[in-house]
Design a protein that fits this description.
Layout (H helix, E strand, L loop, with lengths): L13 H19 L4 H26 L3 E2 L19 E2 L4 H11 L22 H15 L16 H15 L3
Parallel strand pairs: 1-2
């Protein structure tokens, strides 16, 4: 027997998602700038990914979307009306960014991030920054061979901060 699912009470709560993004952003910045940043940059990068993901999902909620797995819509309680195109799901930052850009044409993923991001390629676009942080989630959470990660270092907080500046107009400030 399939279990009937309910929407999580925060699935469409932009304020809570924004607060969660800030918690992860603050923690990531502390670790990226800590005196032991060379070793702490791994969890800092993962938390940075979480922060960016939550900012994107906050912005998507503000555009009327719900954070729910569209593959589970058939299991959703019948009293809830939700369509696949109303769902935002997953951890892929570039995909979430493209979804937001489709809803907000004023978000130009090809716009250059402001800042100097040595040793990363310059200029860096918003999409490049999202792509840089994507493998931080997939490859740094557990010990494993790194396939997509091009590098990581304590200065990556600069890219994180530039992404926050670019996304904050869509997610809102606290």
């Amino acid at each position: 027997m399939k279990r009937t699912l309910q929407l999580d009470k925060y699935a469409a709560d932009a304020k809570t998602w924004r607060i969660y993004a800030q918690f992860n952003l603050d923690a990531s910045r502390v670790l990226f700038t800590h005196e032991n940043a060379l070793t702490l940059c791994f969890p800092a990068a993962t938390l940075g990914h979480h922060a960016i993901e939550a900012l994107l999902k906050t912005a998507l909620i503000r555009e009327g979307m719900t954070i729910f797995d569209p593959d589970k819509l058939k299991q959703l309680d019948g009293s809830v009306t939700l369509e696949k195109d109303q769902c935002a799901w997953g951890h892929h930052l570039v995909r979430l960014g493209k979804l937001l850009a489709a809803k907000r044409p004023d978000l130009d993923l090809s716009a250059e991030l402001r800042g100097f991001f040595f040793p990363h390629k310059m200029p860096m676009t918003i999409e490049d920054g999202l792509a840089m942080f994507d493998p931080f989630f997939w490859e740094l959470r557990y010990p494993q061979q790194l396939d997509k990660l091009e590098g990581i270092g304590p200065d990556d907080y600069r890219v994180l901060d530039a992404l926050v500046v670019a996304l904050e107009p869509f997610a809102g400030r606290l």
